[in-house]
């Protein structure tokens, strides 16, 4: 499966999770998980879809190890961030280190994307 399709499929999956969380928050009138909902939707659905669309538009950018690593960093980072952010919001201090690590993972994914863009700035 192409890298762009992997990004788009995982984006849609994160979007389903994020929107379902929004629907549940609305139904229960409990908005304490709003930051988790916002991060899943924006780092999962929106950011991953943007990466996927760019790799579909410029397939040469998807070649090589950097772009593959970027996929794992962005997805694994959010996979760690969503539950650890939820735990921190519920008052758990023990989840803080995982949250900080996940922040640097998703940030690292964007840095890699910038590097890949820069390497292909003339395409
Ligand atoms: C079925 C779709 C969605 C539902 C039912 C939904 C529902 C909600 C609810 C109930 C809140 C809390 C409002 C409050 O605190 O008063 C919220 C906040 C928010 N939502 Fe959504 N949402 C949906 C989709 C999205 C999408 C697609 C995005 C972004 C791409 C998004 C981004 C946000 C943001 C940024 C906040 C504010 C978070 C905060 O203040 O901490 N939502 N949403």
Task: Describe the secondary-structure layout.
Blueprint: H1 3-28, H2 34-57, H3 65-89, H4 96-119
Helix pairs in contact: 1-2, 1-3, 2-3, 3-4
The structure holds protoporphyrin IX containing FE.
Keywords:
123 residues, mainly alpha, 4 helices, 0% strand
Q: How many extended strands?
A: 0
What hetero molecules are bound to the protein chains? protoporphyrin IX containing FE
Write the element-wise H/E pattern from the N-terminal end onward: HHHH
Q: Spans of 5+ residues with little confidence (pLDDT < 50)? A: none
Amount of helix: over 70%
Radius of gyration, rounded? 16 Å
What overall geometry do the principal axes of the alpha carbons give?
Answer: globular
Number of domains: 1
Oligomer: single chain
Instruction: Tell me the β content.
Output: under 5%
Largest sheet: none
In terms of structural class, how would the helical and strand content be classed? mainly alpha
Distance, first to last CA: 23 Å
DSSP helical segment count: 4
Quick check: average pLDDT? 97
How would you describe this structure to a colleague?
By secondary structure, the chain is an all-alpha fold. The chain has one domain. It is built from 4 helices and no strands. α3 runs antiparallel to α4. The protein is globular and about 50 Å long. The site of protoporphyrin IX containing FE (HEM) has 14 residues, from α1 and α2. The site of protoporphyrin IX containing FE has 14 residues, from α1 and α2.
């Amino acid at each position: 499966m192409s890298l762009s399709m992997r990004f788009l499929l995982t984006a849609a999956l994160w979007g389903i999770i994020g929107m379902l969380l929004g629907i549940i928050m609305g139904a229960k009138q409990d908005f304490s998980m709003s930051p988790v909902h916002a991060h899943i939707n924006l780092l999962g659905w929106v950011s991953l879809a943007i990466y996927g669309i760019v790799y579909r538009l410029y397939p040469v950018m998807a070649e090589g190890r950097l772009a593959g690593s970027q996929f794992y960093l962005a997805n694994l980072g959010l996979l760690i961030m969503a539950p650890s952010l939820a735990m921190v919001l519920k008052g758990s201090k023990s989840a803080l280190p995982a949250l900080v690590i996940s922040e640097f993972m998703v940030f690292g994914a964007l840095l890699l994307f910038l590097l890949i863009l820069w390497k292909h700035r003339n395409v």
